[in-house]
């Protein structure tokens, strides 16, 4: 009987560890691919602008070289780390480069409408347009600009490069 309890405990511990690992895999993307810390030139890639101003930071501009298949791939290809929510994984971006912090948002479910990463598109040098598609389903063209801004849905605070 003692052996049976030990086996059950071992199996339960293994299942719990596997469940925790599965949640972690869906919510956090591995290290990003190397991007360039400047806007792309011409159609060499997709320029990505991330506005951290509402979180006490500045604006970062980077290039995702080539032709990323999705806005999420462009964000990661430009060198940004991305964390999704536990419920939706990377289908809903909760953190970029660790911001906001886990204390501010545990990234369990979708963040509130007053504190989320809004997603934008623009032609190079053009006006920002709020995305009507999610970043994992939108396919940005090389030479265009992707924007991310934290807050209540305002566009990035700089013009699209």
Characterise this structure.
It is a single chain. The chain has 161 residues and is α+β, with helices and mostly antiparallel strands. The protein contains two helices and seven strands. The protein has helices spanning 2-27, 71-77, and strands at 45-51, 59-65, 82-85, 89-96, 116-123, 129-130, 144-151. Strands 2-1-7-5-6 form a five-stranded mixed β-sheet, covered by helices on one side. The protein has a two-stranded antiparallel ribbon with strand order 3-4. A hairpin with a 5-residue loop joins strand 5 (116-123) and strand 6 (129-130). The chain is globular and about 40 Å long. It starts with a helix and ends in a 10-residue tail after the last strand.
At a glance:
The chain is of the alpha+beta class and 161 residues long.
How many individual β-strands? Answer: 7
The number of distinct helices, counting runs of at least 4 residues, comes to: 2
Helical residue percent?
A: 10-25%
First-residue to last-residue Cα separation:
70 Å
Instruction: Give the strand order of the largest sheet, numbering strands 1, 2, ... along the chain.
Output: 2-1-7-5-6
Give the overall silhouette: globular
Unreliable spans are 1-33
Query: Could you give a short account of the major beta sheet?
Result: 5 strands, mixed
Question: Class by helix and strand content?
Answer: alpha+beta
| SSE sequence, one letter per element | HEEHEEEEE
Oligomeric form: single chain
Rg result: 19 Å
- % residues in beta strands: 25-35%
Mean pLDDT: 84
